[in-house]
Amino acid sequence: MTGSASSPTTSRPAAPRRANAKRRKKKAPGWVPDQHGAWFMVTVPALTGALLAPSWTAIPLLLTWWLGYFTFFAASWWIRSRFREKHRPPVLVYGAMAAVAGVVTLLMRWELLAWVPLFAPLVLIAVYEAWRRRPRSLLSGVSTVLAACLVLPVIAWAGDGLDAKAWTVAAVYAVYFLGTVPYVKTLIRERGERDWFLGSVGYHVVAIVAAVVAAVLGVVHWAVVAVAVVILARAWGMPVSGAKRDKPWTPKQVGMLEGLITLFVAIAALL
């Protein structure tokens, strides 16, 4: 009886120790991108390019792009930490995989090197902002968006399908994703800041005007205008409703909504 009575007492302290051990073994940041909305920005334009101009080259090219993004995300953490050892492994792993995919891509279509001068300044801007420990700055966001949307014509070109439609769809994506940069700030980091809110709403008003002009000229479908109106309503309504909530909108909630809107944008742009 004595042994059975004392066993629960001796086993209780083990739980906190196990919990502390799990926390110590937690992976260092840099392995998985934590920006929910960025997943759609990185995947949708690239997949659209492959859809518009399918080719075998698109397979390693897509892998190069995605692994390159993972490498950049990991490198951003590494740079901001001033090259601490614990942040280096994901850079090496993803970097090596991206390099292999890149070599395979160039063996299939070495002419893709002609696009490097367009990407280089965008990457340098993002790296500089990471060094300044401002990975979520407006400048960093704009450079990342432009790089992600530029992948669409690159993949279309690799499949010998770069035409006016591909450039138009890329432009629609760019206008949309650029608008998400100030919009997301109005919900999280700049929540309640009037200037950011007005800037975000103002940008989306201009986007609607541009969409109407493009639709009148026959460059885009009128569905693009309809989606632009929905996006403007979201740019105004989400910050206003968020200000009235006890808790702000979480990044996950914002990202899930943007995933749905991105789907609408893609459908409208492809019509």
How is this structure best described in words?
The protein has helices spanning 2-11, 14-24, 36-52, 58-80, 89-108, 116-131, 138-158, 164-187, 194-216, 222-244, 251-270. The N and C termini lie far apart (78 Å). Helix 3 (36-52) runs parallel beside helix 11 (251-270), helix 8 packs parallel to helix 10 and helix 10 packs antiparallel against helix 11. It contains eleven helices and no strands. The protein is globular. The relative contact order is 0.11.
Note the topology:
Elements: H1 2-11, H2 14-24, H3 36-52, H4 58-80, H5 89-108, H6 116-131, H7 138-158, H8 164-187, H9 194-216, H10 222-244, H11 251-270
Helix pairs in contact: 3-4, 3-7, 3-8, 3-11, 4-5, 4-7, 6-7, 7-8, 8-9, 8-10, 8-11, 9-10, 10-11
Alpha carbon gyration radius: 23 Å
Mean pLDDT: 90
State the secondary-structure class.
mainly alpha
How much helix is in the residues? over 70%
- By DSSP, the count of extended strands is 0
As for the number of domains, it is 2
Count of helical stretches? 11
Tell me the overall shape: globular
Tell me the fraction of residues in β-strands, as a range. under 5%
Distance N terminus to C terminus? Answer: 78 Å
**Largest sheet entry:** none
The residue ranges in which pLDDT falls below 50 over 5 or more consecutive positions are 1-11
Order of helices and strands: HHHHHHHHHHH
